[in-house]
Amino acid sequence: MTNTTDTSSTVTVAVVFRTVVNVRVPFFDTTLRDGEQCPGATMTHSEKLEIAELLDEMGVDIIEAGFPIASQGDFRAVAEIAERTKDAVVCGLARANLADIDRAWEALRGARRPRIHTFIGTSPSHRAIPNLTMDQMAERIHETVTHARNLCDNVQWSPMDATRTEWDYLKRVVEIAIRAGAGTINIPDTVGYTAPEESANLIRRLIAEVPGADEVIFATHCHDDLGMATANSLAAVAGGARQIECTINGLGERAGNTALEEVVMALKVRHDIMPWHTRIDTTRIMNISRRVAAASGFQVQFNKAIVGKNAFLHESGIHQDGVLKNVETFEIMRPEDIGLSVSNLVMGKHSGRAALRSKLRDLGYEVGDNQLQDVFVRFKALADRKKEVYDEDLVALMRADEDPRNDRLAVKSLRVVCGTEGPQTADLTMVIDGAETSTTQTGDGPVDATFNAVKTLFPHNARLQLYQVEAVTHGTDAQATVSVRLEADGLIATGQSADTDTVVASARAYVNALNNLLERRARSASNGDGPGISYMDVS
After folding, report:
1. Which of 30, 265, 340, 409 has the fewest CB atoms within 10 Å around its CB?
2. Per-residue buried b or exposed e for 436-454, using 16+ beta carbons within 10 Å of the residue's own CB
3. Residue 203 and residue 225: Cα distance in Å, rounded?
4. Which residues of the chain fall below pLDDT 70?
5. What gap in Å lies between CA 104 and CA 98, rounded to an integer?
6. What is the DSSP letter of 254?
7. What are phi and psi of 504, to 5 degrees?
8. Which 8-state DSSP code applies to residue 97?
């Protein structure tokens, strides 16, 4: 396979960094499209709208809101995000066919600043899927980009798997897309194959050798399969790319995408060698990271750069002593730079409404009087069971208040018997469509018994794909956040719940996932929506 990069160059990325003038680099966030393609990361309609609003408020330049032809649900989300977004460009993805592009434009036409993003796989392995010759694919690129440009004056084109596409062919099709009217050329490292120096050289060569390249914006889209997505993105900017594609928390298929928070903070902290700036409000990073984690059901790993729970913790005695004397000894950025509260002040049962509202505001939650009253009641109930209530406890409490609706299923009461002597049993009472019903079931442990009880009261064919427990804070009285992912008939839904009782949290998370699955099934049936079209389906 032919390498696209010029291996004769030995210029390092660090040297390139210092030769570029200070310019602004736009950010293209694809959390709602590429991020949601991560198996099990499907978000509800209201969650997509909320995350799009948060992205717009934090200063993201382009929001890729979805893949409109994939399903009626995707179309509705893109259309509504397009109408509601105030500042950002709203983008919709389309494969290289006229029907996809027409559907994308139909969803986007209400946006203040719409963009159609069309693509086709150009590497040898991707060309083989639709069985197109190089000439046939080149003709299709010209036809589809031209069609998109006739509908919308802002068109982006991507040669999927660009980093494994033969250099001469990549150069040819990029030129065709530019001549057809694409204003942004995105160069995707679809499988996370490239390395930083290659990433920089590829962009640099395209700009230098493709006719018309100086009149368009080149973008970089990297995946983290080899752990180099952030480095590859920054290197591409050093090579001349002027748009970075990324997701919150690095959410995405396989090992994920370039993480927005990593690139933004790298540019902020190392501005001395990377002289580019952004319009991202970094103080909003932590809030949106938490919201995406909650909506997607994918918790952030503890040692994740920037937003991980351990990012600003110091356990070593030497480190602790150094930080106490001078915070810059072992910290290169401040917690408040990303919107993390400087002091994790403890709340308790004697804390009042004003203190709770102030703390929630520090955590990124603005609540009205009615919502505050509801949260305050649940906060008091938690404080009665838990001596100290930390920031993380309040975030978990707010998650439970998200997306209110009339669920068909609810847990009313649960009592379990467990221990070294069997059988382990669960006595469960649920409210199903307004009617109470109860059962007692056994299982291999209290959680299994509880899930068996739910299945008995509400028979279903959903398969458990994920069961995950995470302690919200430390101590034996800590809340546990439980995540459950279910799959049935090609539809996937997640549910979460937090409680100081892990089994109760498990029951509610399982039922929450069932409610989400039922909602998706009903929406699919009413819209004629199946599991949906994948962007990888041959067009």
Report:
1. 409
2. eeeeebebeebbbbbbbbb
3. 20
4. 1-21, 40, 313-331, 341-346, 386-387, 400-406, 523-539
5. 10
6. T
7. -65, -45
8. S
Give the integer Cα–Cα distance in Å for 314 and 302: 13
- Count each helix (H run) and each strand (E run) in the chain, helices first: 17, 16
Give the DSSP letter string of 389-445: B-HHHHHHHHHTTSS----SEEEEEEEEE-SSSS-EEEEEEEEETTEEEEEEEEESS
pLDDT at residue 178 in the model: 98
What is the pLDDT, as a whole number, of residue 147? 98
Largest Cα separation within the chain, whole Å, is 76
452: number of CA atoms within 13 Å, CB side? 15
Residue ranges in 90-182 assigned as alpha helix (H): 98-108, 124-127, 134-151, 167-180
Around Cβ 78, how many Cβ atoms within 10 Å?
34
What is the H or E stretch that residue 319 is in?
helix 317-325
Tell me the pTM: 0.81
Query: Distances in Å between the alpha carbon of 204 and those of 9, 171, 200, 307, 461?
Result: 11, 12, 6, 32, 53
Provide the residue type at 298 as one letter: F
The residue written with tokens 């802002």 in the block is 154
Structure tokens belonging to residue 236: 């591409």
- Write out the two tokens for 380: 């008091």
CB 94 within 8 A of CB 141: no
Predicted confidence (pLDDT) per residue in 392-401, tens digit: 778 777 776 5
Question: Cα Rg for the chain, rounded, in angstroms?
Answer: 25
Q: Which amino acid is at 402?
A: E
Structure-token pair, residue 55: 């992205």
- The backbone region for 144, taken as left when phi is positive above 0, alpha when psi lies in -120 to 50, beta otherwise, is alpha
Which residues, in sequence order, are CB contacts of 205 under 8 Å at separation 6+? 5, 6, 167
